Amino acid sequence: MSQKLPLQLSVQTGNQKYSHWTKEQLVDEVARLRKRKKYGLVWEDKPEDVVEQCKTELPVLKEVKNKAIAKDKNGPVNILIEGDNYHALSVLNYTHKGKIDVIYIDPPYNTGNKDFKYNDHWVDKEDTYRHSKWLSFLSGRLRFAKNLLKSNGVMFISIDDNEYAALKLLCDGLFGESNVETIIWHKVSDDSGRLKVTHRFRREHEYIIVCYKNKDSVFFKKYLSDRNYKNVYTNPDNDPRGPYKQGIVSNTEATSNPKGKNYYSIKTPSGRIVTRQWRYPEEEFKKLDKDKRIYYGKDGSSIPSIKVFINEQKETTPTSIFYGLGTAKTAGFELEAIFGNKPFIYPKPVTLIQHIIHIASAQDCLVLDFMAGSGTTGQAILQLNKKDGGHRRFILCTNNENNIATEVCYPRIVKVIDGYKEAKGKMVVGIKSNIRYFRTSFVGAEPNDKNKEVLTKQATEMLCMREDTFESVKETRTIKIFRSSKQHTGIVFDEDAIPALKKDIAKIGGVWSVYIFSLADDTFDDEFEDMKQKITVAPIPEAILRVYRRLFKA
């Protein structure tokens, strides 16, 4: 029989209800209280089929080789994963933990209008557990995604009013309140016409929640904020220096008494005399006018203004309100230009995603979108690379519901790479790049020898993705070797083949990552101590199983 707690311990709890509890009961109660949130979001967790599946089956990847595209020999390799994003994120927790610079996702908004499925059923407005299902769906995925970010990584999540409040609290809990901010995206144009009125306001905006792994390590690039405002920069007189906006050069109206040393008259090209208090001394004004930096309007008779060229502007810190970055309407036009129709509803505009990626990362960043939908993020990165010569890479994950992966997302990326003819007949030149296509698959989760052997054999694509080495050099029953421009990856399926791999390493040279099949957890480091090459060694499948045990623990 369990020993009762000493009386003094019962009294110290400050609550008489504990006075007759056993030690075991009190330990359990303390554990329960520690889990209880002092402040934050609480919901009833609802079981999800794809999550429960991972208790009996472990996700892996299988490459669809006939969908690979290689148009840029020395360029980066992009990834498209077809499958449920919970499973894709599980795999990425092994292959890309701590490697992602930027994550952008556009999750279902849970409007109740058939935009969100849970366990293959639409969640409608009458569902009592509508919000709990959405939070159950998103919380696990965000937890997995956080693991993938670098220490200075950042995640952007689009959302609207339906779940903004809940998502903000969820992110506060996962990342910490100090690591979460909100951006307002002005999603409509000034000429958008009628908008749906909810409550008593026209809804012209959505939100983008920004989550930092560590905000103190993140420094967004400055940019020309005015560049994004509609019609701010124009070029009515075709100035060869490019677009400009019109700045003010006069302060006050003419008066009978001079207002200072910069009070003088100028003559416009049309002959009009304008007397003002000017912002520039007369000699400086004449120099600006001679340099054709003063604009007098199309007819040459307007009050003069100074040309402020966009290319000469200083950059500014990004603002929390995103204007002029495309609209829901223009995003639809972008898809229609590629496909001739709109095969996907509610896409995001390419310019919005490009702006996010540009300010938040370097030109060689790795971007993940695990709710890729129509593939906007992929197109945005390819076009951004073309624009500034960058070497950004992307990983897109999407299921194939309604053939969204095979008939929209993948074809869209292919068209951007190969080039295409717009619906109106205009040819769009392709952007040389590379992509590999994978589907999620599964192996048994029971940790027996048979399943370990199967997992090892099925892990080849995961290892290639982890090391970014996709070009096959050697494939035998016991050894596989892959390479990139930076390194080689060796996979050994039989310990007896280690000497043969060492000969290949000595012959080829360079940097190597080596994976060796072991039913135990042997490191095999001593096998390569005599090698001059830089080699890292890891056992498989135990290294993968450790990740899955951590992810799928109860």
Provide a descriptive summary of the structure in words.
This protein has 3 domains: 297 residues, Vaccinia Virus protein VP39 (Rossmann fold, 3-Layer(aba) Sandwich), CATH 3.40.50; 86 residues, no CATH class; 104 residues, Trna Endonuclease, Chain: A, domain 1 (3-Layer(aba) Sandwich). Helix 4 runs parallel beside helix 5 and helix 4 crosses helix 13. The chain is globular and about 95 Å long. The protein is an alpha/beta fold and 554 residues long. The strands form 7 sheets. Strands 1, 2, 3, 4, 7, 8, 11, 18, 19, 20 and 23 form an 11-stranded mixed beta sheet that branches. Strands 24-25-26-27-28 form a 5-stranded mixed beta sheet, sandwiched between helices. It starts with 6 loop residues before the first helix and ends with a helix. The protein is 30% helix and 25% strand. It is built from 15 helices and 28 strands.
Brief overview:
By secondary structure, the protein is an alpha/beta fold. 30% of the residues lie in helices and 25% in strands. α10 (376-388) runs parallel beside α11 (404-418).
What are the SSEs and their pairings?
Layout: H1 7-12, H2 23-35, H3 49-53, E1 57-63, E2 69-70, E3 77-82, H4 85-95, E4 100-105, E5 117-118, E6 121-122, H5 130-148, E7 149-159, H6 164-175, E8 180-186, E9 197-198, E10 201-202, E11 205-212, E12 244-248, E13 250-252, E14 263-267, E15 273-278, H7 282-290, E16 294-295, E17 305-309, E18 321-322, H8 328-339, H9 350-360, E19 366-369, H10 376-388, E20 393-398, H11 404-418, E21 419-421, E22 427-429, E23 434-444, H12 449-458, H13 460-467, E24 471-475, E25 479-483, E26 488-492, H14 498-508, E27 511-517, E28 534-540, H15 542-552
Parallel strand pairs: 3-20, 3-23, 4-7, 4-19, 8-18, 19-20, 26-27, 27-28
Antiparallel strand pairs: 1-23, 2-23, 5-6, 7-11, 8-11, 9-10, 12-17, 13-15, 14-15, 16-17, 21-22, 24-25, 25-26
